[in-house]
Write a structure and sequence with these properties.
It catalyses: dTDP-beta-L-rhamnose + L-arginyl-[protein] = N(omega)-(alpha-L-rhamnosyl)-L-arginyl-[protein] + dTDP + H(+). This is Protein-arginine rhamnosyltransferase. Keywords: Elongation factor, Glycosyltransferase, Protein biosynthesis, Transferase. It comes from Pseudomonas granadensis. Belongs to the glycosyltransferase 104 family. There is one protein chain. By secondary structure, this protein is of the alpha/beta class. It folds into 2 domains: 3-153 and 366-379, Rossmann fold; 159-363, Glycogen Phosphorylase B (Rossmann fold, 3-Layer(aba) Sandwich), CATH 3.40.50. The chain has 15 helices and 14 strands. It has helices at 19-35, 46-52, 96-104, 122-126, 159-167, 170-179, 201-210, 225-232, 258-267, 277-285, 300-312, 318-332, 338-345, 348-363, 368-379; strands at 7-12, 38-43, 62-65, 68-72, 85-89, 110-114, 130-134, 137-142, 189-193, 215-220, 242-245, 248-253, 270-274, 289-292. Strands 3-4-2-1-5-6-8-7 form an 8-stranded mixed beta sheet. It has a 6-stranded mixed beta sheet with strand order 11-12-10-9-13-14. It is globular and about 70 Å long.
Length: 380
């Protein structure tokens, strides 16, 4: 049996709006496009899916999008045969009937829990280990990660070269931005802001507004809009709104397709992102960034944040590393970040070089889709 005649099922429950579906949709497309696999993507919330893939029919129980069979994951499960490879994304629970179907196969499928991304040291030791067992079917831990010995990161074939060419083509960038209604002033720095609600935002906007260098802040639809509106002292912000205060121009963008979001990140000088999918895509942009990590009970997320910062800032000078650590930790804690932003700006060329070097370093590892396929080939 080869990789090209196997069937893969990916199950996704949408927990945090777009992160879960964002990762699984990218993965499903890549498995089809680059590995010629037959992939079904089971999703319980097609409305959230529609935001990143407008072609989705939210009323269809079954449809095909970009070579992927998309199935609505119904409350009342209808029996279906189990695939050769079954991926439970982010520890979601599979339907009981489907688990029985896995156990009924003559040859049990490879059942993997595609876990959340983390830079913590223990991930390397747990990657590929057995988890729970259901009858004859053993579940395996599969961890994305930043270090050898993990599953790597989602990265499509040729992505970094595509990004490099785009960032060297001023005309292509200008055309893309104009397609979103963005007119960038020649001397303005471009920043994207995609984040959860954050009490520390006001101090950052205050500093950007008072700066000598103009800033054009691009804010896609999302949870941070309420905080931006309060700072601007307006009741609501809708797509297309443009407000200016001193040196700061704020523009609200529509929620865009994944490939458009990639290009937006590539255009910007600095990207503030959230969750997991946009976090990884910002790293592939090769530009300085700020991550709003998803908050977890008992501040468990803090360990994940510290572990990533230890890797990401390893190549920086002590002063630059201290500035980045202060900025990221304050932002994730909802604390004022204005002074931390000014401290980071003192090391801007070094932060730019570090972002590029980190991107290239991560690009040397096998991508997540390839790692999954290779794991299956080794397993059989």
């Amino acid at each position: 049996m080869t990789e090209t005649n196997t069937r893969w099922d990916i199950f996704c429950t949408v927990v945090d709006n777009f992160g879960d579906i964002g990762v699984t949709w990218r993965l499903a497309r890549q498995l089809v496009a680059e590995h010629s696999l037959t992939v079904r993507l089971w999703v319980d919330d097609l409305r959230a899916f529609e935001r990143i893939c407008p072609a989705i029919d939210i009323d269809a129980a079954q449809q095909y999008q970009q070579g992927v069979e998309v199935r609505h994951w119904p409350v009342e499960w209808v029996h279906t045969d189990a695939a050769d490879v079954v991926i439970a994304a982010f520890a979601c629970n599979l339907p009981n009937d489907y688990m029985d179907a896995m156990a009924a196969r003559e040859r049990p499928p490879l059942w993997m829990n595609l876990d959340y991304l983390s830079a913590e040291d223990w991930v390397v030791g747990c990657h590929g280990l057995p988890s729970v067992k259901y009858k004859s079917v053993q579940k395996i831990f599969f961890f994305p990660g930043f270090q050898p010995g993990t599953g790597g990161l989602l990265r499509e074939r040729g992505l970094l070269e595509q990004r490099r060419r785009f960032q060297q083509d001023a005309a292509a960038q200008r055309q893309f931005l104009q397609g979103l209604g963005i007119e960038r002033a020649p001397d303005a720095q471009l920043i994207s802001l995609f984040a959860y609600e954050n009490a520390g935002l006001d101090s950052w906007l205050d500093v950007l507004a008072a700066a000598d260098t103009p800033t054009h802040l691009l804010v896609p639809e999302g949870r941070i809009l309420g905080d931006v509106a309060r700072w601007l002292e307006v009741e609501t912000l809708t797509v297309g709104a443009i407000h200016q205060r001193q040196s700061l121009t704020v523009q609200v963008l529509p929620f865009v397709r994944q490939d458009q979001y990639d290009h937006l990140l590539w255009c910007c000088d600095f990207n503030a992102v959230r969750g997991e999918d946009s976090f990884v895509r910002a790293q592939w942009a090769g530009r300085p960034m700020l991550w709003h990590i998803y908050q977890q009970d008992e501040d468990i997320h803090q360990d994940k944040l510290d572990a990533f910062l230890a890797l990401y800032t390893k190549g920086l000078s002590p002063a630059a590393a201290e500035a980045m650590n202060g900025l990221w930790r304050a932002w994730s804690a909802g604390q004022p970040i204005g002074e931390h932003w000014l401290a980071a700006c003192k090391h801007w060329p070094e932060l730019q070089e570090n972002a590029q070097a980190w991107c290239l370093e991560q690009g040397l590892q096998a991508d997540l889709a390839t790692a999954l396929v290779q794991f299956y080939l080794n397993w059989i």
